[in-house]
Amino acid sequence: MTVESLSYAIDDQDRLVRVDDGFYRFAAENGWDGAGDTLGRSLWDFVAGDDVKKLQRLLLRRVREGVREIQLPFRCDGPEVTREMDIRIAADSTGRVVLFSARLVNESEREEPQPLFDPGVPRDDEDFLPMCAWCDRFLVGGEWVEVEEAARRLELFRRARLPALDHGICPQCSGQLLAA
Ligand SMILES: [Zn+2]
User: Fold this and answer.
1) Strands 123-132, 162-168: parallel, antiparallel or unpaired by DSSP?
2) DSSP letters along 98-113, please?
């Protein structure tokens, strides 16, 4: 990856008011739709999953109303890499503008690319696979597992079509976020 860090800021209406060059490059590398046209849009347009949104809203409220700053690890994998990042969420003195800065901590190549993240691969909409949007693990048979393990257990590579991803948050990450 060429992007080591990225940052963005939102106003009191949660609209993106400032994004840096790293944000645009990261968006392009990860195939985000409409990322070139980000300013003025709601932060929530870029967050997948209702319960992820709910938790992030909670975090934001705590940052704005008192704790001022939270720092958390999260995963942000690409098709060919696993990527550990740290995100720092900090409010200005008024609590209205909030700055997000993410930094790459570690990136390693996968042994085999994981097509689950390729938006070009057709998916079967009747078939859902729950995914934690914070740690990038998948719920298979009641257990949250890494993508390689999910692919093995569900024999994803032998299917003609992949299940649709259902973005949510696993109990471990939800506990971690609520404790932040
Ligand atoms: Zn998780």
Assistant:
1) parallel
2) EEEEEEEEEEEE-SS-
Surrounding residues of ion ligand 1, Cβ less than 5 A: 132, 134-135, 170, 173
**Which residues partner with 7 through β-bridges?**
101
Residue with tokens 């934690």: 132
**DSSP H or E run through 95:** none
pTM: 0.77
Mean pLDDT of residues grouped by 10 in the chain (180 residues)? 85 94 83 73 86 86 88 83 90 90 91 64 70 91 89 75 83 88
User: How far does the centroid of ligand 1 lie from the alpha carbon of residue 93, in Å?
Assistant: 31
From ligand 1's centre to the CA of 154, what distance in Å? Answer: 19
Report how far ligand 1's centroid is from the alpha carbon of 152 (Å). Answer: 19
Structure tokens at 43: 């932060």
54 Cα: distance to centroid of ligand 1 (angstroms): 14
**Dihedral, CA of residue 140, residue 142, residue 144 and residue 146, to nearest 10:** -20
Distance between CA 66 and CA 123 in Å, rounded?
A: 43
Radius of gyration of the chain (CA): 17
